[in-house]
């Protein structure tokens, strides 16, 4: 059987993934705003067709096989392994949840038939599937799969202690060592216990990889590469060093790894006559700074230089670090400057870096590095430092939405207008319901601040889905129906959005709206559990945005690949059915008057076009930043 051979349904599914990936980018060419909007609409329609076909292919061919995996022939197992390998290979994370489901079935097969080498490999691949799903949450602190990931890697690595010498296949031994090294991927966070556990796992792996007796058993394995990657991973402890609570031995270990990487980078650069890679230059400079060999102003200058070290038309991983991660890290370290005056002196550089960042991500194509790009973009958002004269956090967030999820940007723009209208009507009909908002102790104060509250509602509509910044690729790239794993991840967008907005003074007032917009009014359903909108001073805005979200998402299918749009009347009927349970009755009652329904329906049709014109203009501005 040819190594690259796939079943016809597998090849077709991969082709669908490729077409959807390309369609997730922005329309090209010299288009008018109207042509631009129509191109996005056509792309959404094509994506819905791809999802329907992809779901059909998997339901008819793959899922029955996975459900009865123990009866599969060895030939079918081989096809499955090759198919899964195409779904997630290296940086190409095409469909991590599907990759996980296939390898979960293959693990059961290996256990049942006591195929030890296969089991070791499958446990490693299961851990990597979960790691790639978990990275969607980073740098947020919430974790779904860390314990399970650690369990898979640890079981695979345990064969080093139990039967390593009985294993004759070099590749299987390689999976054992890779699993041992990757246990550290399950430790995230900058608290002391997590850092100590991660360092201990790293130290054990590095010790074994350096052992000449172990190396002699399988000389064909790429030992130096494994060891080098372990040192690269140890430099990720820089995040712990930034917390300011690290012990001296941690500084020493991170500095050792950074110096090893730097020496190899210098040697490789000389041999290939290439510049040093910015990502590892940062690790070296940061280790020097944290160990006292470099002052903070000097380190910030080095970071700024790294942010401009790669050309704007280079879209590789190192250029991504230069354009996106370096500004994020610069802002993070600026927070360590001794006073506000020192930070203000950095505002010009911060603004220039953010402008370059936005210009670069707007032009970056959809490639196998999509998830890495979104991770780096989230770094910039979480590390953002508000400084007078620099790009606002609101604009940075809106720019990233416009660049990487254009239909999501348009949806939020439109939701802002709907929320603003509902807020004005609420002030007119039931101002007492908005009492309790900051500076609005009673109905009279609410009426007096009608315009301010309406403006707040508009901003809330533009920000409530900020947490989707974690899940763009999960929404845009797979061409199949949603799995339980997809829902588990995406439901976290409310919590993640609240966290992200709460970090910055300008958006902190909107955090509760992001947190609660999917909570049911009666608090007996929805998500996330544990958050009570009734306890928030912004509860009225949560209720208004919840209805605005339903109206906006339900009546527009551009960007939605799982369902067709419904009519305005159908959504209003659904709101009435959910009044008192899912939706606040006083907000739904705002739509009882026929003339208001007609006004809002007409306005929403106009706002759809306006939203895409706003998207078009924002992207044009980003190209000129």
Walk me through this protein's architecture.
With about 625 residues, the chain is mostly helical. The protein has a domain at about 400-625: Orthogonal Bundle (Hypothetical protein af1432). Helix content is about 65%, strand content about 0%. The protein contains 31 helices and two strands. The protein has helices spanning about 10-25, 35-65, 75-85, 95-110, 115-135, 145-155, 160, 170-180, 190-210, 210-215, 225-235, 240, 250-270, 280-290, 295-305, 315-335, 340-345, 345-365, 370-385, 395-405, 405-430, 445-450, 450-465, 470-475, 485-490, 495-500, 510-515, 540-555, 570-575, 585-590, 595-625, and strands at about 90, 90-95. It has a two-stranded antiparallel sheet with strand order 1-2. The mean pLDDT is about 90.
Give me the secondary-structure topology:
Blueprint: H1 8-23, H2 33-67, H3 74-87, E1 88-89, E2 92-93, H4 96-112, H5 116-134, H6 146-157, H7 159-162, H8 170-182, H9 192-210, H10 212-217, H11 223-234, H12 238-242, H13 248-272, H14 278-290, H15 296-307, H16 317-334, H17 340-344, H18 347-363, H19 370-383, H20 393-404, H21 406-429, H22 443-448, H23 450-463, H24 472-476, H25 484-490, H26 493-502, H27 511-516, H28 539-554, H29 568-577, H30 585-588, H31 594-623
Antiparallel strand pairs: 1-2
Helix pairs in contact: 1-2, 2-31, 3-4, 4-5, 5-6, 5-8, 6-8, 9-11, 11-13, 13-14, 14-15, 15-16, 16-18, 16-19, 18-20, 20-21, 21-23, 21-28, 21-31, 28-29
């Amino acid at each position: 059987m040819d190594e690259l051979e796939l079943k016809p349904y597998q090849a077709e599914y991969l082709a669908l993934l490729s077409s959807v990936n390309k369609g997730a980018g922005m329309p090209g060419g010299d288009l008018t705003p109207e042509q631009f909007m129509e191109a996005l609409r056509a792309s959404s329609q094509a994506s819905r067709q791809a999802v329907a076909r992809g779901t059909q292919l998997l339901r008819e061919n793959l899922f029955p096989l996975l459900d009865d995996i123990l009866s599969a022939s060895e030939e079918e197992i081989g096809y499955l392994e090759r198919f899964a390998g195409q779904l997630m290979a290296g940086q190409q994370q095409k469909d991590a949840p599907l990759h996980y489901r296939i390898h979960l079935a293959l693990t059961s097969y290996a256990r049942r038939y006591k195929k030890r080498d296969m089991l070791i490999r499958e446990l490693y691949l299961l851990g990597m599937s979960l790691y790639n799903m978990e990275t969607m949450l980073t740098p947020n602190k919430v974790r779904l799969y860390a314990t399970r990931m650690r369990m898979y890697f640890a079981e695979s690595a345990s064969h080093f202690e139990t039967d390593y010498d009985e294993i004759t296949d070099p590749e299987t031994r390689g999976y054992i060592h890779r699993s041992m090294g990757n246990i550290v991927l399950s430790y995230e966070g900058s608290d002391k216990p997590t850092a100590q556990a991660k360092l201990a796992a790293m130290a054990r792996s590095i010790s074994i990889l350096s052992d000449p007796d172990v190396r002699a058993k399988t000389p064909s394995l790429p030992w130096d590469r494994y060891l080098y990657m372990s040192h690269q991973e140890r430099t990720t402890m820089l995040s712990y060093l930034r917390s300011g609570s690290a012990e001296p031995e941690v500084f020493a270990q991170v500095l050792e790894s950074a110096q090893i990487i730097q020496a190899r980078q210098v040697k490789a650069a000389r041999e290939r006559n290439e510049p040093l890679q910015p990502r590892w230059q940062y690790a070296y400079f940061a280790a020097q700074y944290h160990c006292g060999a470099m002052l903070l102003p000097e380190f910030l200058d080095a970071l700024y230089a790294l942010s401009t070290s790669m050309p704007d038309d280079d879209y590789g991983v190192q250029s991504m670090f230069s354009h996106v991660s370096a500004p994020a890290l610069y802002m993070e370290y600026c927070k360590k400057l001794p006073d506000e005056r020192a930070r203000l002196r950095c505002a010009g550089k911060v603004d220039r870096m953010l402008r370059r960042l936005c210009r670069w991500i707007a032009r970056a194509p959809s490639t196998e590095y999509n998830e890495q790009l979104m991770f780096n973009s989230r770094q910039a958002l979480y590390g953002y430092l508000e400084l007078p004269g620099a790009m606002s956090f609101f604009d940075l967030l809106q720019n990233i939405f416009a660049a990487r999820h254009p239909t999501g940007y348009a949806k939020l723009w439109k939701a802002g207008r709907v929320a603003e209208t509902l807020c004005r009507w609420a002030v007119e009909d039931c101002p007492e319901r908005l009492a309790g908002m900051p500076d609005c102790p009673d109905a009279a104060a609410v009426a007096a601040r009608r315009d301010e509250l309406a403006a707040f509602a508009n901003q809330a509509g533009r920000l409530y889905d900020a947490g989707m910044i974690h899940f763009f690729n999960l929404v845009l790239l797979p061409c199949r129906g949603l799995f339980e794993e997809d829902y588990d991840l995406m439901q976290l967008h409310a919590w993640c959005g609240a966290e992200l907005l709460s970090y910055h003074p300008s958006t902190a007032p909107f955090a509760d709206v992001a947190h609660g917009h999917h909570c049911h009014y009666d608090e007996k359903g929805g998500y996330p559990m544990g958050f009570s909108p009734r306890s928030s001073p912004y509860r009225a805005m949560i209720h208004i945005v919840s209805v605005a979200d339903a109206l906006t998402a339900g009546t527009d299918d551009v960007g939605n690949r799982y369902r067709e749009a419904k009519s305005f009347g159908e959504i209003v009927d659904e709101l009435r059915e959910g009044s008192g349970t899912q939706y606040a009755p006083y907000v739904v009652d705002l739509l009882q008057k026929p003339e208001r329904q007609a006004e809002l329906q007409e306005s929403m049709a106009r706002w759809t076009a306006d939203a895409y014109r706003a998207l078009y203009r924002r992207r044009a501005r980003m190209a000129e930043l």
